Amino acid sequence: MNDPQMTASETYRTRREDVARLLDWLGMELEKTDQAAAAAPRDWSIAGSMGRIRNDLIDLLESVSGIERELIEETLDERA
After folding, report:
1. Which pTM does this prediction carry?
2. What is the DSSP letter of 76?
């Protein structure tokens, strides 16, 4: 994906667009998972998969933001 003809700004913009598309795709996959969970409420493998996704997203957010994992988890625990 490193095109020597592209500037850093152009490369950033392209990659940022990719990230937005991937997040949209993730949203669609989560909707499918919602349906699977509703259809199989006793299937703990679906909850386990969601736990892995949650952990991976926390790791990613920690890496991107510099916010410590503990603070991210505390924020998630502050559900209304």
Report:
1. 0.82
2. H
